[in-house]
Design a protein that fits this description.
With about 110 residues, the protein is an alpha+beta fold. Helix content is about 20%, strand content about 40%. It is built from 2 helices and 5 strands; from the N terminus they run αββββαβ. The chain has helices spanning about 5-20, 80-85, and strands spanning about 25-35, 40-50, 50-65, 65-75, 95. Strands 1-2-3-4-5 form a 5-stranded mixed sheet. Strand 3 (about 50-65) and strand 4 form a beta hairpin.
């Protein structure tokens, strides 16, 4: 199987899993946004809590040039390790939220 097809399946599954979590407070929805055509996988929260609007990305993963880019991780989870456990080689995972000059120190790919 083409690795990118497998990466898409993993990205979709991970997004759907994290979208099942609901915050313990407020009237907030957690949604998976999956765009397999453009290889974007995101989990967002939308709603209200304590009179304040909530809207933002919790997790954002892209697939670019055959690599899985973690663009944002607003959770306590170690997404890179979850991706490795799902079968993605460390060299194909890029911590996009880290500056390019420190990615080589991460133990993951550099992009």
């Amino acid at each position: 199987m083409d690795p990118v097809i497998r990466y898409r399946e993993i990205g979709s599954r991970l997004s759907e899993e994290y979208a099942r979590y609901k915050p313990a407070y407020g009237d907030v929805r957690t949604e998976a946004v999956v765009d397999r055509d453009r290889d974007h996988y995101e989990v967002v929260q939308v709603g209200w809590t304590g009179g304040r609007r909530v809207h933002g990305s919790v997790i954002h993963i892209d697939i670019r040039d055959g690599k899985v880019w973690i663009e944002h991780n607003g959770t306590d989870a170690r997404l890179g390790e979850e991706l490795v456990a799902a079968g993605i080689p460390r060299s194909d995972i890029v911590l996009g939220f880290q500056p390019a000059e420190v990615r080589s120190l991460s133990g993951y790919g550099v992009g």
